[in-house]
Amino acid sequence: MLVVNTHLDHLGELARVRGAQVILDFLVERPEETPMVAMGDFNASPYRPIRRTLYTLRTFGLFAEAGFMDAWRSVSGVWPHPAAFHDYQGAACLPDEYGTWYIDWPLMRNPRVLSAEIVRNPPDTPPVSDHYPVTAIVTCAGESRSSGGRNAWRTMVSATAQDSSQARKPSIVSDTISSRAAFPENAATMQGAGMKKVIVFDVNETLLDVSALDPFFVRIFGDPNVRREWFGQMLQSAFVSTITRTYRDFGSIGMSALAMVAERHGVALGDEDLLALGTGMRQLPPHPEVRQAMERLHNTGYRLATLTNSTAAVCEAQLSNAGLHDLLEQMLTADSVQRLKPAPEPYRMAAERFQVGIESIRLVAAHSWDIAGALHAGCAAAFVARAGQVLDPAGALPDIIGMNLADVAGQILVADR
Predict the structure, then answer these.
(1) Which CATH architecture group holds 212-282?
(2) Residues 6+ positions from 175 with CB-CB distance below 8 Å
């Protein structure tokens, strides 16, 4: 077993990303079947940005793409709450507005995780560090459990980072690995369980770059930011249609939204403007990483489809022009059930079309409302954190969050191993 320990920079995301790349460059030189543990204080969140700092998801995404899985999440299926960093407050440390600070990871590749826990100090006992240790018991696949301590290890990660003010000096607790002969025979593991073989993608903003419409809005309104206003108005009108059960197709809603925005700005629209917007929507380019990420999932055996609020004609034109249609088994639209997402009917329709249970569907989307709708319907979900897109901290969270589709694809492959 190869074990590496690290403590990445607590201020700069670029420094963390480069540090992670140095570690991975070192690890990839070893045989692929080598059991590996990468552990320490990564100073980054694996599932959501922390506060308004540079703590982003990219560092974890690099390890996920390389096949590493967090030990805690592999046995529990969720991220820990509260997390390991407590800033010397112990049990008094409360989650902040963005959740908890889970920045100490025992990451595994090839070892099977049997159990994991965060070792918290007893009540009324002052903590010896500003982090709790994270422990994991793992075994190497293919080895006999009867071989005793040689085939199971207790991996303890005890971060020693100082607080950001550098005013206090924490006690040092070394990161250790020690042999352990006995471990729970019935310990739970999530690896290999809950395989989500059907992935349905939202289209606009998730796969396709809607910012390509900015020149249109500059020509009409003199401001590219009006594109976001229009898209927000379109979604608002779509939600009204869904809530009041007065169905209108997404295309007509989009044109009505444009008329509302134009009236708001005192701009007169011509028929040629409506035509130009429709043409632009059909010719949106994919985000740069989309094709390769979808190919990776497709070649691994996933069944891929779209699930969009657009009509079938618009969806087919979009995906054909974007060069993605050949990777899709089906192009599904909410228009076929006359109910727009996030109503449950479109997600249920996807399961029916693939003849699988709703729990076997995973939606990938860049919109919190779409994620919420999928989770409420019973799907799994993965969030693509495109620029300007965030999750509702008060809502249910998906198990996978990535900065782009490449990040998300890597995490799906690890989670479904």
Answers:
(1) Orthogonal Bundle (1.10)
(2) 5, 39, 40, 156, 157, 158
